[in-house]
Amino acid sequence: KVIAFIFFVDHINIFFFLGNVCPKRWSYLAGYCYFFSNSTATWSNARQRCIETGGDLVKVTSDEQNAFVASRYSSSRCLTEGTWIGLRRNPKNLSQWVWRDDFNVKPQYTKWHRKEPMNERLDKNCTEIHPSKSIYWYGRECSARGCYICVKDANECNNYNICSGQRCANVPGSYKCSCGTGYTATKEKRKCQDIDECKDENGGCPHFCVNTPGSYICHCRDGYVTENNGTVCRPPEFSTAGTEIKSREETRMTSTKDTNDTKLFTKPPAAKPPGECVTTDF
C-alpha cells in the first residue's frame, strides 16, 4: 500500500514509500530501504551499526540515488557534522577508492567535489556528503564523527498486494511474481494480471461468459436449464442429452454437438404385424 509520496521536482523523479516493505524509520527507494541516522559515529563504527541492522553503509551508483540521500539528512546536527557513505580509500592500494570491501571493483559512479579527492592527503580516507554545502562528496578522516546512511534490501513481498495476492519471491533490489491459475505475469514478472478467459471463444460458454478474478463463470439465458456449471444450456422441457423424453407425442431429443441447440423428432407409430386380422363391426 502506498502511504506517502515525495516529489523531487529538480530531478523529475517521484520517490515513494511502501507501507510494511521497510522497517519503521526506514525510507524506500527503488527496491532498497534507507536509514538516516540522527546520531554520529566514526566511519568504522557507523558501518558496524549498519551491518547489525542487516544492511551496510550506503553505496551510491546514480545521480537519482545521490539526490535522494543528499536531501534526506535527518537533523541539523548532520548538517554540521556531515554524513558518511560507504566509499573509502583502498587499504591495499591508497591511490584507489572502493565501496566498502569491494577492493577489486572500481567505482563506476562518483560525485566528488571539484577539489576532491585530495589524494595527497592520505589522512582523509573516508567519504562524506555534506548537505549544507552541496550534493558533492568530500574526503574526511575516518576517525572523525558523522551521521551515516544505512541501506538494505527491501522485502516487497511483505506487501500482500504487490503481486495481486499471488506468490511473491524477494530478490536483491526487486521481487518476482509467480502467478497461479487464471493469472499471468507481466514481462518483468513484477505483477500478476487476471486472464480474461471470456475473450477467447467466449470461454467455451454457449450463452454468457462472465470473467472473475482468476476464473470465469458461464451463465445461460433466462428460461434455460444450466448443466455442467453453465457449459451446457438446455430448454427446460429437456434433461440430459441423449435421454428419452416422455410427452404426448412421444418425442425424443438429440443434442447437436456444434451449437448445443436441440432438435425434436416425432417417434413413428409401431407397424402392425403382417397377416393380422382386424375385426370390424358392420
UniProtKB/TrEMBL annotation:
Region of interest (Disordered), ranges? 247-282
Please give the SUPFAM superfamilies that the UniProt record associates with this protein.
Answer: C-type lectin-like, Growth factor receptor domain
The record's Pfam families line, in alphabetical order, gives: cEGF, FXa_inhibition, Lectin_C
What biological processes does GO assign it? positive regulation of axonogenesis
Say yes or no: keyword Protease present. Answer: no
The record's subcellular location field reads:
Membrane
- Give the GO cellular component terms, alphabetically: cytoplasm; membrane
Q: Does the keyword Transmembrane apply?
A: yes
Alphabetized, the UniProt keywords read:
Disulfide bond, EGF-like domain, Lectin, Membrane, Phosphoprotein, Repeat, Signal, Transmembrane, Transmembrane helix
Q: Name one GO molecular function term.
A: carbohydrate binding
Q: Which residues form the C-type lectin domain?
A: 29-151
Q: Supply the InterPro entries for this chain.
A: C-type_lectin-like, C-type_lectin-like/link_sf, C-type_lectin_domain, cEGF, CTDL_fold, EGF, EGF-like_Ca-bd_dom, EGF-type_Asp/Asn_hydroxyl_site
Topologically, how does it sit relative to the membrane? Single-pass type I membrane protein
> What name does UniProt use for this protein?
C-type lectin domain-containing protein
Q: Identify the species of origin.
A: Pocillopora meandrina
